[in-house]
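User: Reviewer 2 asked us to show a designed sequence for the structure in our supplementary figure. I'm pasting the structure tokens here. Could you produce the per-position amino acids so we can include them in the response letter?
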């Protein structure tokens, strides 16, 4: 199963990362970690579904399982919609809870402790330690990622490899900006990474999406948020693990 993902190894570093909120600085991860080169695709998420992921309580957080039962989730929200369900498009219409359940299932399958990236792991993978605005540098170019900033205009997610040659980060991680906002493990308000916090209101999203028309939402340092039960066409996720 590990071979179905392309992994980028990122060495630990030192220092701090500035975010879009002046009072919030993130510590660069000290320990090495591996992050998926691409967001999770429909084809990859389908393996979780084939393993009865929506029926296996042990892979869900308590709050996630309650939300899943309450709403009768059996698949991602847009799973049957041909606009969003091509095998190499990033999976969308998944809540934070579903993304975490996928990670727990994959942990069991691989023997590795899979997680959503923390906010600091995500940002460091996107920009390294030089504070660049975008994965490729400091000059905006709408042709380097999937977005709707004029003159570019998008109405759909693109295959995950579409911008591999033009929009990669300093570590060669792809689609960190545009295509889909990506769930992070981090609580937006408390900045903690507890997956079982019952009092969480929002979880962090990073990276902007195909829908964004304002370049300010497509920066490496921008902090986004959604309720963990939200299931949108603009949100997907990628995974990481520490050796």
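Assistant: Here is a per-position design you can include in the supplement:
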């Amino acid at each position: 199963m590990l071979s179905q993902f392309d992994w980028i190894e990122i060495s630990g570093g030192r220092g701090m990362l500035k975010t879009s909120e002046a009072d919030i600085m993130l510590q660069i991860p000290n320990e090495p970690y591996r992050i998926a080169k691409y967001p999770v695709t429909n084809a990859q998420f389908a393996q979780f579904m084939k393993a009865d992921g929506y029926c296996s309580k042990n892979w869900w957080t308590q709050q996630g399982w309650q939300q899943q039962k309450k709403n009768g989730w059996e698949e991602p929200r847009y799973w049957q919609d041909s606009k969003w369900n091509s095998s190499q498009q990033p999976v969308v219409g998944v809540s934070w809870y579903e993304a975490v359940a996928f990670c727990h299932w994959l942990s069991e399958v691989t023997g590795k402790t899979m997680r959503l990236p923390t906010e600091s792991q995500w940002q460091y993978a996107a920009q390294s330690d030089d504070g660049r605005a975008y994965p490729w540098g400091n000059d905006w170019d709408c042709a380097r990622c999937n977005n709707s900033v004029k003159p570019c205009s998008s109405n759909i997610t693109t295959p995950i490899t579409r911008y591999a040659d033009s929009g990669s980060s300093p570590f060669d991680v792809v689609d960190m900006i545009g295509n889909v906002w990506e769930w992070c493990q981090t609580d937006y308000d408390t900045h903690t990474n507890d997956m079982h916090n019952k009092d969480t209101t929002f979880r962090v999203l990073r990276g902007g999406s195909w829908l964004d028309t304002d370049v300010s939402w497509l920066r490496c340092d921008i902090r986004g948020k959604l309720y963990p039960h939200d299931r949108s066409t603009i949100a997907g996720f990628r995974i990481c693990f520490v050796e």
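For the response letter, you might also mention the following. The longest helix spans residues 96-110. The mean pLDDT is 97.
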